[in-house]
Amino acid sequence: MKKLINDPQNVVPETLAGFEAVYADYVKVYYDEDDNPYVVRADAPVAGKVALVSGGGSGHEPLHAGYVGMGMLDAAVPGAVFTSPSPGPILEATKAVNAGAGVLHIVKNYTGDVQNFEIAAEDAADEGIEVKAIVVDDDVAVQDSLWTTGRRGVAGTVLLEKIVGAAAQAGKNLDECLALAEKVNGQVRSMGVALTACTVPHAGKPSFDLPDDEIEVGIGIHGEPGRRREKYTSADAITDELIKPVLDDLKAPAGSQVLLFVNGMGGTPESELYIVYKHAREVVESYGLSVARSLVGNYITSLEMQGCSVTVLLLDDELTGYWDAPVDTPAMKK
Amino acid sequence: MKKLINDPQNVVPETLAGFEAVYADYVKVYYDEDDNPYVVRADAPVAGKVALVSGGGSGHEPLHAGYVGMGMLDAAVPGAVFTSPSPGPILEATKAVNAGAGVLHIVKNYTGDVQNFEIAAEDAADEGIEVKAIVVDDDVAVQDSLWTTGRRGVAGTVLLEKIVGAAAQAGKNLDECLALAEKVNGQVRSMGVALTACTVPHAGKPSFDLPDDEIEVGIGIHGEPGRRREKYTSADAITDELIKPVLDDLKAPAGSQVLLFVNGMGGTPESELYIVYKHAREVVESYGLSVARSLVGNYITSLEMQGCSVTVLLLDDELTGYWDAPVDTPAMKK
């Protein structure tokens, strides 16, 4: 294993130390009494505003800490690599950002994440903080998986954090933010592919074996198995296998406007993401839909995995307005 | 070779088609009569402004097309992967962005790039366009290399394009922009390391062999050999081997402010870049320097290569002011 790391046990705190030094204007990094980190917007709590807290295992950077800032998240809670954060730092983050208007937890649908955010929410309620939660489950690849009951939460989370973050910034109350989050989650679908595995630092070897001529279609963001393993073909053929299930599941009415998001898994050259985007857009248009907004890049990754995911969000004026609203975070600016 | 591509010969035009569709508000992609592409700012030519044109082989995305827009480049000319663009599209780009105030060519020091930009500049002069050129040579790793006489131009180019782009946007004339570019090039130093090789699509196999336990210190952005090959150790030890030669060569006076830039080669997890940044910053401070500005991310890549480069720019009020100035391009926004 060759990685730009020192002790595998220190990957997360060393990463956060560098991140905080670069983005001191945006975030502060704290540790709870058990040395679990949480990342808080530098100007939190923001008076009168519903606070948004997300989190999950590390290894998906820039998610979630990169989205802490004006118009997006108020706090992010990073666990160890590919490991759910414990309830303790989620509770501390919730308390740190609460401004009295309530806190929305944005949780990707993995069993550990869901359980630990629930415990933290109950503990926060005991301290008089109103918490509601949205569980994101946009991955159409598999119904249940290794670590999940129901569909997994993947790249749609980034879009949801941006849109609901804009609504919170605009002064919407907790129930309105939750309703908007449920709407976004109901209108977004994703699917991913891996060309290579990735290596979790404390494991020291690739998470799975993928032969030189095969790909894993429907991969999860931790390398969980997908729909099937098959021979490598070409970008267009692979893109078809991602975008068509997404669109078939979404069932957007012809004539609708959508946001098309091609996300890199971390080790994919940017050029390849644009090649996937080009063909995915052609397929979207062949379904009678119009691509009104786009996002291409590494936004929710799996360490150095090569591959990508394709996400489609059905837009309307409300969602487009919040998507276009100003945002100023380390990893997303408008 | 597993890549999200179709025909290796079509990687660049398919990438640009996707890129242009995403960033239609920022850029237009044109082809000259020999089907060579060039990328032009959507609102070019910008009246009264010195125009900045850069370019070079593809495979370093987001460089250069990602930096076309307000406050940075007016045009970018992408060659085939790791191959200099020919003079034809450089000339066409120069003509397309010329607003009568002259054009500055920003050229990384590779023999092919330097020659072809020179030919295009002469042809432009024949058509009455005043062109000056800065050749960037910030890589301290080697004096001459496979494709270069003198030092190579690497990540310092990104900083130069931002700073001189801001000056051009502010209305500085061609001589002032050139003088500023020469100043930046004189105050910036870089050095990189590769943990893995990358595969050029039309070659179909890795550019070089690097054993599982070795790294290449002083690598170029096309995988050209560096200073030495050695055993993999740790992030901090590797970072020492990059930042110390950079600082020793730069010889910034103690007490100076610098910009510290850690750049990913394309296949490196973002977390690892922050780990490198953390230690590099400690070393910078141990030299009596102060890190006043920072940049961390994939800004000039080598396809899917794993590794990074470290760049230090000696700042003063003029450079800091231009660095902080607004910029709105696909890959850099402030």
Short description:
The first copy, chain A, contains eight helices and twelve strands.
Query: Which CATH class of the largest domain in chain A applies here?
Result: Alpha Beta
Number of separate structural domains of chain A: 2
Largest protein interface?
A-B, 57 and 57 residues
Let me know the CATH homologous superfamily of the largest domain in chain A: Dihydroxyacetone kinase, domain 1
Describe the structure.
Two copies of one chain form a homodimer. Chain A folds into two domains: 8-186, Dihydroxyacetone kinase, domain 1 (Rossmann fold); 188-324, Dihydroxyacetone kinase, domain 2 (Hypothetical Protein Tm841, Chain: A,domain 3), CATH 3.30.1180. Chain A is 32% helix and 23% strand. The two termini of chain A are 38 Å apart. The first copy, chain A, is globular. The first copy, chain A, contains eight helices and twelve strands. In chain A, helix 2 (87-97) packs across helix 3 and helix 4 (156-169) packs across helix 8. In chain A, strands 1-2-4-3-5-6 form a six-stranded mixed β-sheet, sandwiched between helices. In chain A, a hairpin with a 5-residue loop joins strand 1 (27-31) and strand 2 (37-41). Chain A has 334 residues and is of the alpha/beta class. At the A-B interface, helix 1, helix 6, helix 7 and strand 11 of A face helix 1, helix 6, helix 7 and strand 11 of B.
List keywords for this structure.
8 helices, 334 residues, Hypothetical Protein Tm841, Chain: A,domain 3, 32% helix, 6-stranded mixed β-sheet, alpha/beta, Rossmann fold
